[in-house]
C-alpha cells in the first residue's frame, strides 16, 4: 500500500503532469481520426519517449493508450467510421443513436463507460499482477518457453483471416528478431557483413514502419477527405446517462469483466473484447432484436469492455513479458527502452516504477471523463484537419522518429522497407499484429528454447516433464491445432472448393 | 490479385530459403551443442511450408475479379493516385539522400511542402505547412530533446538558427 502512495507521488511532478496532459490531447486527437490506430499513435511517439525520463515517458504512454481507445468512439458515433478497430463492434448502435437525436447520450455513455472500464482494468491490474508475479517466479525456462509459444499461437489463432497468413506474419516477426547476435553463443546472424546490423534491426523504426507507413500509403494511393459531422449532433452530453447506467448496470459489470478476461488472453485485444461483450449483451437482452438499430443496450458493455481490456492485456505484459495484443506489444517495447524489463522480477527490482506505470493508467482513466468531454466538443475541429495536410505531417514524423532514436539514416531505410512489406501484407489480408508479437517474443522464445535444450541435454521430453510446462504445452498445442483441424475438416468435406 | 497473393507467398518462401542458406554454414561453439543456426533453421522451414500452403490457396482462387484488371485490389482506377503514392514512398529515400547535404531544415521543409502540395493542390498552404511543421519538429527534437540533426549546407548558420 505504501508503494502505491509513493507511485502516486511520482505522478504529481509538474513534468509528469504536463507530459500526461500532452499525451492525453495527442491520444484523443489521433484516436479520433479514422484510420489512425491507437497502436500507431503509440508507435509514433516512441522517439519522444526515448529521450524523456522513465516516469514521464511511461506515464505518457499509458495515458495515450487509454485515451486513444476511447477517442475511437467519436468518429464511430458521429461518422459511422470507427476511429480504432476497438470501436467497430458497436459502431451501428452509436451512429444510429446520433441520427435519432441521442448524440449526447451516445457520447456520454461512451466516455463514462470507457472510464469505468478503464478504471476496473487498472484496479485489477494493480491487484492481480503482483500476485501472479509471485507464481511466475517459480517458472523455469521450460514454462517460459511454453508461455511464449502460447502467446504466439494465440496471436495467430485470434488474428483475422486465414490461419496460415497469421502464421507467416508471426514467422516474419521471428525472422526479423533473428538479425544480430544470437542470444546463447553471441555469433552474428543475417548481418550480411554489415556492422550496422550486429545489434539487430532497431525496434522503433520497425514499429513505425509496420504501423504508420501502411496508413500513410493507403491514403496516398486513394486520397479521400472525411465529411465533418452536423453541428447539432453533439449536444447535452451526459444527459440521461445516469438512468441508462442504472438500468444497464449488469452490462456494465459484464463489459468490465469480459474486457479484463479477454485482455489477459495473449493475442486477443480490445477489439475482440468489444465484439465478445456485445455478443453476450445481445444474447441475454430482452430486446435483442433491436441491437444494431441504435439503442444504448448495445453500447454500454462493448465500450466498457474495450477499455478494461487494455488493463487486462497489461497483466501478461508486465508479469510474463508476453504482450496481450499489438498495442501492448508496442508498449512493451517502450518498457524495454526505459529499462523496465517486464517479467516477474520487475515487481522486486523495479517495484516503484512498475507501480507508477499502473497508477498512471488508473489516473489516465479518471482524467478521461473531463478530457473526453472536451474532446467531444472539439471533435469537429479535429476531424476538419484535411488529410492532404495531415498525412505529409505523419510521414515527416515517421522519418524523423525513425532517425532520432538510432541517429542513423539506416533506420529511415529500415522503416521504409518494413513499411512497404507491411503495406503489401495488409493489401493481401495478412494480419500485422502476429509479426509484432513475434518480434517482441522472438528473443525470449529462442533463448528459453536453447537454454531448455542445453539444460535437458537435448532430451525433448524434458520440455513436458513438469506438470505446469505440460499444461502450458497442451494449451499451446490445442490453440495451434484448432485452426489446422478446421482447415483439414473443411478440405475433406468440400474438396472441390477453394481452400478455406 | 491472384498474382499478388502468389507473389507474397513467393516472397515468404524466398525469405525462408535465405534463412536456411545463411545459417547452413554456421557452426556450434565449443561446449554448446545447439548453435545459432538451429532456431532460424526451424523458422526457415516453417516459413517455406506455410508459404507453400499460401501459394496453393492462391492458385485455387478462381473468382473473376481475381484475374487482375483495373479493380483487382478493390480500388477503382479513377480513385487511385499513383504519382502521390510513389511520392510518399520516395520521400524517405529523398531524406536519406538529401539530408546529409541540404540538412534537416531544408530537406524536411521540401518533403512536407511537396507532398502536401501534391495531395491538396494548395501551394501557399503547403509551403507554410512544410516550413512551419519542420520548425516545430526542429524545436522539439533538436532543441528540446537534444537529438543531433544534420545541418548540411546550413552548417555556417547553425548558431543563428538555434539557441542551443
Radius of gyration computed on alpha carbons of chain A: 22 Å
Number of strands of chain A: 2
Tally of separate helices of chain A: 22
Overall pLDDT score of chain A: 84
Can you give a write-up of this model?
The complex is a heterodimer of chains A (500) and B (164). Chain A has 500 residues and is mainly alpha-helical. Chain A has one domain. In chain A, 72% of the residues lie in helices and 1% in strands. In chain A, β1 and β2 form a beta hairpin. Chain A is globular, with a radius of gyration of 22 Å. The model of chain A has no long low-confidence stretch (mean pLDDT 84). Chain B is mainly alpha-helical. Chain B is 67% helix and 0% strand. Chain B is built from 5 helices and no strands. Chain B has helices at 2-23, 38-60, 82-120, 123-144, 158-161. Classes of the chains: A mainly alpha (500), B mainly alpha (164).
Amino acid at each position: 500500500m505504501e508503494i502505491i502512495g509513493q507511485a502516486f507521488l511520482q505522478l504529481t511532478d509538474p513534468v509528469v503532469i504536463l507530459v500526461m496532459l500532452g499525451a492525453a490531447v495527442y491520444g484523443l486527437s489521433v484516436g479520433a481520426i479514422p484510420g489512425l490506430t491507437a497502436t500507431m499513435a503509440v508507435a509514433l511517439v516512441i522517439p519522444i519517449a526515448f529521450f524523456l525520463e522513465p516516469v514521464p515517458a511511461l506515464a505518457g504512454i499509458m495515458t495515450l493508450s487509454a485515451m486513444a481507445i476511447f477517442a475511437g468512439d467519436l468518429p464511430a458515433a458521429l461518422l459511422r467510421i470507427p476511429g480504432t478497430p476497438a470501436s467497430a463492434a458497436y459502431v451501428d448502435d452509436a451512429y444510429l443513436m446520433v441520427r435519432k437525436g441521442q448524440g449526447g447520450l451516445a457520447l456520454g455513455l461512451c466516455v463514462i463507460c470507457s472510464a469505468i472500464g478503464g478504471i476496473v482494468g487498472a484496479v485489477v491490474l494493480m491487484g492481480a499482477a503482483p500476485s501472479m508475479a509471485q507464481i511466475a517466479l517459480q517458472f523455469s525456462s521450460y514454462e517460459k518457453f511454453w508461455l511464449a509459444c502460447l502467446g504466439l499461437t494465440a496471436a495467430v489463432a485470434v488474428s483475422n483471416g486465414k490461419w496460415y497468413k497469421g502464421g507467416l506474419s508471426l514467422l516474419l516477426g521471428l525472422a526479423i528478431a533473428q538479425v544480430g547476435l544470437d542470444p546463447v553463443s553471441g555469433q552474428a546472424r543475417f548481418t550480411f557483413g554489415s556492422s550496422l546490423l550486429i545489434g539487430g534491426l532497431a525496434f522503433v523504426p520497425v514499429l513505425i514502419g509496420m504501423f504508420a507507413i501502411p496508413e500513410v500509403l493507403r491514403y496516398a494511393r486513394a486520397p479521400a477527405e472525411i465529411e465533418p459531422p452536423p453541428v447539432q449532433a453533439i449536444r447535452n452530453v451526459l444527459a440521461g446517462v445516469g438512468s441508462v447506467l442504472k438500468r444497464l448496470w449488469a452490462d456494465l459489470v459484464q463489459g468490465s469483466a469480459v474486457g479484463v478476461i479477454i485482455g489477459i488472453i495473449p493475442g486477443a485485444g480490445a477489439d475482440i473484447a468489444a465484439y465478445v461483450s456485445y455478443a453476450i449483451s445481445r444474447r441475454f437482452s430482452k430486446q435483442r432484436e433491436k441491437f444494431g438499430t441504435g439503442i444504448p443496450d448495445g453500447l454500454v458493455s462493448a465500450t466498457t469492455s474495450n477499455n478494461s481490456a487494455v488493463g487486462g492485456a497489461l497483466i501478461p505484459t508486465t508479469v510474463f513479458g508476453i504482450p496481450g495484443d499489438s498495442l501492448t506489444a508496442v508498449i512493451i517495447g517502450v518498457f524495454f527502452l526505459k529499462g523496465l524489463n517486464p517479467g516477474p522480477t520487475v515487481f522486486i527490482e523495479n517495484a516503484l516504477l512498475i507501480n507508477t506505470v499502473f497508477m498512471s493508467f488508473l489516473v489516465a482513466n479518471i482524467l478521461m471523463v473531463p478530457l473526453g468531454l472536451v474532446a467531444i466538443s472539439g471533435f469537429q475541429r479535429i476531424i476538419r484537419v484535411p488529410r492532404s495536410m495531415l498525412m505529409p505531417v505523419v510521414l515527416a514524423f515517421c522519418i524523423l522518429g525513425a532517425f532520432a532514436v538510432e541517429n542513423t539514416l539506416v533506420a529511415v531505410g529500415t522503416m521504409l522497407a518494413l513499411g512497404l512489406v507491411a503495406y503489401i501484407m495488409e493489401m493481401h489480408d495478412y494480419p500485422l499484429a502476429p509479426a509484432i508479437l513475434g518480434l517482441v517474443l522472438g528473443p525470449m522464445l529462442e533463448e528459453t528454447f536453447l537454454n531448455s535444450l542445453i539444460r535437458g541435454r537435448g532430451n525433448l521430453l524434458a520440455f513436458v516433464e513438469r506438470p505446469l510446462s505440460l499444461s502450458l504445452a497442451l494449451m499451446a498445442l490445442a490453440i495451434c491445432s484448432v485452426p489446422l483441424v478446421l482447415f483439414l475438416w473443411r478440405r475433406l468435406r468440400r474438396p472441390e472448393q477453394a481452400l478455406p | 490479385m491472384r498474382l499478388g497473393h502468389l507473389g507474397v507467398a513467393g516472397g515468404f518462401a524466398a525469405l525462408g530459403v535465405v534463412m536456411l542458406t545463411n545459417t547452413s554454414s554456421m557452426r556450434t561453439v565449443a561446449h554448446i551443442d545447439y548453435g545459432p543456426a538451429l532456431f532460424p533453421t526451424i523458422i526457415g522451414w516453417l516459413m517455406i511450408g506455410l508459404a507453400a500452403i499460401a501459394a496453393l490457396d492462391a492458385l485455387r482462387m478462381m473468382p473473376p475479379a481475381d484475374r487482375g484488371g483495373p479493380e483487382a485490389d478493390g480500388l477503382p482506377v479513377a480513385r487511385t493516385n499513383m504519382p502521390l503514392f510513389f511520392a510518399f514512398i520516395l520521400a524517405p529515400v529523398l531524406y536519406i539522400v538529401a539530408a546529409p547535404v541540404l540538412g534537416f531544415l531544408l530537406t524536411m521543409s521540401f518533403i512536407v511542402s511537396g507532398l502536401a502540395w501534391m495531395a491538396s493542390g494548395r501551394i501557399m498552404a503547403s509551403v507554410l505547412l512544410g516550413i512551419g511543421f519542420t520548425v516545430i519538429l526542429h524545436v522539439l527534437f533538436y532543441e528540446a530533446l537534444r537529438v543531433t540533426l544534420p545541418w548540411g549546407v546550413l552548417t555556417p548558420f547553425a548558431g543563428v538558427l538555434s539557441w542551443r
